[in-house]
Amino acid sequence: KLILLIFKTRFHAHYWIRKYWSAAIIGLLSFLLSFSPASFLLIVASLILTSILLVFSKQSFSKIKFLGAILFITFPLALFMKILYIDKFFNGVSQTEANWQIHPPLTFVFLTTGPILLFCWLGFKNYFRSLTTIKIMFLSFVFSSYLMFFSPIAFYLKTTNTRFLSPLNYILLAVLTVTGIKRLRSLSIVCLMLLLLFIPGNIEGFKSQINDPNLVSPISYLPKGIIDGFKYLDTLPGKQTVLTTPAQFLWMIASIYSGKPVYLNRLGLYNYDQKADITAKFYWGSLSEHQAKEFLEKNQIGFITLTSIENYPLDKVSQYGFLKKIYQNQDVVIFQLVGR
């Protein structure tokens, strides 16, 4: 939308209208920077590439000047917001995301993009026949997206490279594909190619998921006993915190069915690594009796859960003298902190 807005602004006849929309663009870029720095960087990179291409293609100097002015104002603003806002509030998340880098082989990217890659090349000729400014911006954005995803720049910016993959990439591929396919005399060839390429490669995957629904994720199909245990917590008075292990993302299930707060929550939030570390030590019995009780009391944890889909030993938790078993079935055991 920002790219379209920039394009629209450039062709307004009246100076005051261009000035108004230019201010709106800078405001939107600043807003985007506040919650999605990766998308902001992609927009800026596409503007830089577009400006370079416009220079080499000897386009109107006013277009280059317009894009250059936006970049000139945006860069200092971005630096100011980084120091004042992003570094201050997102430092913990940034450290986590910096270690989350995914660099698959190029063949994997082609395969996961899907059959659309077989047909998008059919639209290249029509797309480049009349290369307008908006087309250059669109192409620059997609190029910047893949370039930043495969480069190590995300690590130095303290974010995950997956944030540089944008849905706009697939929109461009779809536009190229539709443009190319509509020029074919018959769509039967396209349908036949899709059937031959898509069905054989996925039929085994479909069969596996039908035969074993737990193959996708251990928390997609939870045993009924786990849900029953969390529902039991909802019948108990008070809002004491529930402790779950860091082995599975059961915190979201526990919070929904128990109606109580949980100690471990979304990955990437403040101090998650430290919380997960001490929780694991608690479940492995690595803490002394005093340390374990102090940990629970300090964080107002009243209930401790352990399910059948987690690999922590039950006897380690049972050895704590300040815990009382209040619920058990074949899928979950729940303890309560006593003797406060």
UniProtKB/TrEMBL annotation:
Keywords: Membrane, Transmembrane, Transmembrane helix. This is Glycosyltransferase RgtA/B/C/D-like domain-containing protein. The chain crosses the membrane at residues 21-54, 66-86, 106-124, 136-157, 169-199. The keyword Transferase does not apply.
